[in-house]
């Protein structure tokens, strides 16, 4: 837990810098999606932009529900249909806000915190990083699909890669991440390669 930051669009402070930065990246990227771009293909091969946003929103609410015991998403984040009532940002923002509010209650000295992914409990910093990884990587997916600059700053990429190396290998068995890609590059490239994403992906 470090100096608190306000997560733009939520009015909340989590105190977890990596998560705050990832939430800001996701929210900002989704708000900048051009009209008519919601059906474009994405690096998530089976999903379009709207489906990725729906999935990312559901995942953030699932992280909140794991901590609070409150309700999770009323749809399956792993089978998003891309049918969103209203603007996709209007779906995303309250779910990110719920995640931010939940993580604001978690202290750095807690022994562990429940999370919605295996092993279902992690040290607090790693758990917050897991939520951040999910948000930031899907922000990159949406940005890449819609012609936006990458939201993965060098500092964000370094922090996320550290988390990824602690949690991703077991998740590959469930199809959450593709096999890692070999190759050299900067911090963003290293993160994307580790997550099985091609930094040069195009539709």
From TrEMBL:
Top-level taxon of the source organism: Bacteria
Pfam families (UniProt xref): MDMPI_N (PF11716)
One GO MF term attached to the UniProt entry: metal ion binding
UniProt domain Mycothiol-dependent maleylpyruvate isomerase metal-binding: residue ranges: 19-143
SUPFAM superfamilies for the chain: DinB/YfiT-like putative metalloenzymes (SSF109854)
InterPro entries (alphabetical): CHP03086 (IPR017520), DinB/YfiT-like (IPR034660), Maleyloyr_isom (IPR017517), MDMPI_metal-binding (IPR024344)
Official protein name in the record: TIGR03086 family protein
Species the sequence originates in: Actinomadura litoris
